Structure formats: structure tokens, C-alpha cells
Amino acid sequence: MRNWNLNINSKVVQYKEEIRIKLKIFLAETDETSFHKLISSFIETYEAKESSFVAYFQSNYINRTKKWASCYKKKAGVNTNMKLERWHRQIKYEEAGGTVMKRMDKTISLILKAIAKKLLSRIISIERGKLTPRVALIRKRHKTSLEMGSEYGYIQCVKKHIVTKTQGESIFTYDIEEGDKTCQCTIRCEECNICIHSFSCSCVDYCVRFIICKHIHFIHKESSVGEISVETRREDLEHSNHNLVVDENYNEKHEIEKDAIVPTLHNVSLDSAIHNTLTVMKNLERGLRNVKSVDEVCEIQRTLIALERRVNSSGSMTNLSGLPVAQRKVACAPSNKSIEQQRRFVIKKRKLSKQNRSCQTDVQKHQKQE
């Protein structure tokens, strides 16, 4: 749309607003036949009036309508959130602090920590629930459906409903078909008790953005479809001759997902704890080389022997409450050797500056002359 606006401003002379409205209609059209009719009508109308823009539109967009037209992207779930860019930003700025990572080992450790945080946030979202942008849009469309006035109407058929909208002399229609009422997926409207697979609509919200549009909410509110519960429909389908395929319960899926994530997080935390313990052992080795007393070395040796027995017996480092606490012995020096250091003698007399000294010498000379 940005390129269209730039070329409209530069190439169109007289019919700028009309062409903008026509192009928006092209983007919103979800029926292929109607889309091609609108395109051909647009070219016939403005080919003589705005030849430069029509030539630009034909050369750049007519030959590849499948890449930009909404009628070829039904149920595609177009989402502008760049997940990979967000993940790259999290690793580079939130984890690495914006610095350039040169060492491979630090980079791998950083990525593992980021993955552990992702898995932990996934468990939190499973337990607590998360308001996704798609569910937020569904709730917004539900509120919009409550404000739909008398200009909207509907025609109820057997398994198809038609929502009509009267705007001036024009009448817009949206076809709504019934789908799988037994689905219990998370993309749903809790107030209407329907999910994204319960109905399908021909509008842009459902076909392109893949959300429950206001027309579906309107049909569910106005018609008798909402009065029939899901349990009644299940019983009717079970008694019928059709083969029923019920989706897997999402709670069971979440439990399976949690069972797969939790051991991974435990392994990550165990590896990091072992790594930290080995670092402490290396620091202990460096500190042991600086010990100068034999008694201290013997005490440390007894503590390490007890620690080794504990590790070999249990194989874990989680509970070390039974280990003896190392008490450091303080060497007692003779009384004649522990002499306090003499305090430094500090002259508290204020020193004179060079200027004051010169003035003082001049005064003394003057007194001597007198």
C-alpha cells in the first residue's frame, strides 16, 4: 500500500482518492471471480484517464496477483509479528547485552540459557493462560458485534447463513458456513462458546487474519445456533451413521508438553550447578596453594575426605548438612611479639602558602631594621 500511495501521488493527476478507494477494495475482496471483475473494470475505466498509473499497475501487479491479493490467501492466518526477528533481538540484546559474541563456548551457553527461559515461560503460559493477540482480536470483534445496528440482517439456511449490510444503495453480503462444533481448540470466544473451526466466513477477518469475525458473533447471537449446546450436538452425531472424529483433548496435550519440558529444565539447571561447583573447586585449589600453616592444610584435608565420601555414597550435591564445619585455628603468638604499631606523629599546624611566607619574611626583616 505504501508503494501504491507513492505512485498515486507521482503519477495520478486527477483521480487520486478514487483510485485509492478502488485499490483498498481490491485488497479486501476475498472472492476470486469478483476480484478479477473488479480488476478488469478498473483497467477499462482508468486506462485512458490515468494511463501512467495503469501501466505501472499492469506491469508490476497484474501478472502476480496470487502474491498480494486476499482472495488467494484464505485461512492463511497472516500475522505481521516477526518471530525470528524477535528471537534474534532477545538473544543479542537481552541475553548478550548488545555485545559481539566471539567465543563459541560462551555463545552456546547463552543460547542454552535463552532456550531454558523460553521453555519456562511456556510452562507458565500453560498453567496461567496467556492472552494472545488473536484471542484479543476475537474479544474485540465480540464487542463490535454487540453494537451492530439495524443496517445488518441475516438469512438463515440449513448449513449456511448470509449476513447482509445495507450501506446507501449498496448491499454487501457475507456467507457463513457451519463447521466442526465439537472442536475444543484455544482460539475461541468463551462468551459464545465457539472456536475458530465452528464457523467460516467470507470476510477478510476470517479468510486472511483467521479470527472469529463480527459476522460469526452476530449470527451466533441472533440465530438459534447458539441455543444448541455442544453436548447435544455430540449426542446427535454419535447416534447418527456418520463417522465422528473428535480432536484430542488440549488439556492432555498440555500435560504431555509439560512432561517433556520439565526434565529438560532440570537437566539445564543440573548442568549449570555442576559447572558452578567445579568453578568453586578450582578457586579452592588456587586458595590452597597460598595456605602456609600445616594445621590448616590438615583440617582442609579432613573436610575434603568427608566431602568425597558424601559424593561417592549419594552421587548428589543437594544435601551437605552432615558435613563437619571446618574451624580455622588462630595461631597464638608470644606476648613480646604482638607489639602494637606506634602511631604516626602528625603535625596539625597549618602550613603557610608561598605568598604568606614571603609576607612573613618581609615583616621580620622590617622589625629587625627597626
From TrEMBL:
This is SWIM-type domain-containing protein. It comes from Nephila pilipes. The lineage of its organism: Eukaryota, Metazoa, Ecdysozoa, Arthropoda, Chelicerata. The gene is X975_14697. It comes from the Eukaryota. Residues 350-370 are annotated as: Disordered.
